[in-house]
User: Fold this.
Amino acid sequence: MSHDSAILQRAPGARAASESNPVTEPRFVRWALTGIALVFLTLFLAVPLAAVFYEAFRKGVGYYFDSLADPDAWSAIKLTLLVAAIAVPLNLAFGLAASWAIAKFEFKGKALLTTLIDLPFSVSPVISGLIYVLMFGAQGWFGPWLADHDGQIIFAVPGIVLATVFVTFPFVARELIPLMQAQGNDEEEAAHVLGASGWQIFRRITLPNVKWGLLYGVILCNARAMGEFGAVSVVSGHIRGQTDTMPLHVEILYNEYNFSAAFAVASLLALLALVTLGLKLIAERGMAAARPGATQLDQ
Assistant:
């Protein structure tokens, strides 16, 4: 057997081996990189998370639940959930409408709208809170008018909702815009030719195609809404039992050296974050399964 024939016989097996194992780095390099990643995750994620729950339960389970049942803590929990319950649906409606318009239609101002959607990513949350104070505060542009009509936005729940909506509104739109652009308009155009109305096209074609991306954006939006600190801190006024959300209440308790109570409330936020991560993982798997040409490995 010639040398060339031997190469031809070995080539299919070698090609199959390379396809089954695309990693070409030496084993010790892979072990080293994996070890570094595990150490990093342990030091900066697992250890702080364990420390939160350890400090929360350090004085016992009874003290833990008493801290959560405190009127001020309970008020902060309810306010956090209320703000998220208002901000997330508003951002859901805006993100869905904006992404549909940007991905499916051409119109003047499209580039400007896309830029404005990214604005909260480039502006500090503290600055956005100060902008609302400048507009709706007692000495702000609309402050005297609000005072004359017995209205209050700053240092009240409406201000917290506005600040939260501002810092969270890009999340849904930014998840849906590239997804809708990648899917194109072929299905919608075919449905239009067949006589479907705009609402039917949206409800039966567009929305089912983006359901997992929509869920992913809603999860991220909700996580940011519950954990927002900077903008809410500026507009809330830190009125204990009235305008303090969970992150603000944690800060107050920590500054008062009430560490166990502070970590008890922080542990509740951590639990909500873990639930969010679980839902995010489900959404990612759903998006991978729904992606055109997805393989079993992707799923």
About this structure: DSSP finds 16 helices and no strands in the chain. The longest helix spans residues 71-104. Residues 61-289 form a domain with the MetI-like fold fold (CATH 1.10.3720.10).
